[in-house]
Amino acid sequence: MSNMALICTLCFVAVAAFISMRQKLGLEKEILIGTLRSAIQLLFIGYVLHFIFETSHPAFIVIIILCMILVAAWNAGAKARHVRGIRSRIAIALACTEGVTMAILLGLGIITPTPQYIIPVSGIIIGSSMIVCGLLLNHMKREMETARGEMEMLLALGASEKQAIHSSLRRSVRASMIPTIDGMKTVGLVQLPGMMTGMIVAGADPVEAVRYQILIMFVLASSAAMTAMVLSLISYKLWFTRDARLLPLLPAENQ
């Protein structure tokens, strides 16, 4: 793609900004900030990846994956920032998912151990897992409101924290995985995913592109399940105080 063609893509941003102004949505500032940030971040990571691909040093691969995990944990943790320690738990869940998934991919020889494969696939794994974490935390916040009476009753009857919150956690884990499962059901019929489309546009054989996309879809399903399970297991106590009471509800404007 030429620089001129890249500049012309700003037309799509202009359409979004025009609709916002026309409908008085007040999103013009957010659209401008999002446009600038996405362009700067993508250009920056492009040059970083170019350097890493040239050097192929394992240390750089580890550093960039750690940065992905930390940024993802910070972003997903904003969904429940009032829960102390939630970001560290998210980082642990993301690291576990990334480690197990990448060990399987490399151990079975599904992908080659080069930065060109490890970093993009890791980005897909961590990015999708971050969304799962955000969905799980959002649903848990609703559960803390709607099922609060049920949990308090169980605690009053002598149930442990895990027993009291078990049903809410199960519903939250299920809700966080539904978008991934629904995506698997409609892929290829409703949408052609980004990786597959990119490979086809770059000139790859469509059948080969489909094979890689199948790999990614299966990896996403596995990573969603692992992330939701690990995060729920290591974070459920954070929804309680030290004396085994539920955390107080925040005012609506602070949520």
Automatic annotation (TrEMBL):
GO cellular component: plasma membrane
Pfam families in UniProt: UPF0014
Keyword Lipid metabolism found: no
Subcellular locations according to the entry: Membrane
UniProt keywords, alphabetically: Membrane, Transmembrane, Transmembrane helix
Keyword Transmembrane helix: yes
Sequence intervals crossing the membrane: 6-22, 34-53, 59-78, 90-111, 117-138, 186-204, 210-236
Membrane topology reported for the UniProt record: Multi-pass membrane protein
UniProt record similarity statement: Belongs to the UPF0014 family.
Name assigned to this protein: Putative ABC transport system permease protein
